[in-house]
Amino acid sequence: MKRQKRDRLDRAFSKGFQAGIGGRSKEICPYSTLDSKSQWLGGWREGIDGRLSGLFNK
């Protein structure tokens, strides 16, 4: 049985989350389509919130 790739929007969210945790700027968003970009920014916001709340120490 083949493994399925994760959904593109899930992957965009995850990449944005990782960027937010890392403290990167939201200006580095690599996506140009509206759906993917909004998912990436949503993940970025959650990552930044988690980082500022002290959930992640880097």
UniProtKB/TrEMBL annotation:
Family as reported in the entry's similarity comment: Belongs to the ribosome modulation factor family.
Any GO CC annotation of this UniProt entry: cytoplasm
Main location: cytoplasm
Name of this protein: Ribosome modulation factor
NCBIfam families: PRK14563.1 (NF011162), Rmf_CrpP_fam (NF041886)
Record Pfam families: RMF
Organism: Shewanella pealeana (strain ATCC 700345 / ANG-SQ1)
Keyword Transferase annotated: no
InterPro entries listed in its UniProt record: Ribosome_modulation_factor (IPR007040), RMF_sf (IPR023200)
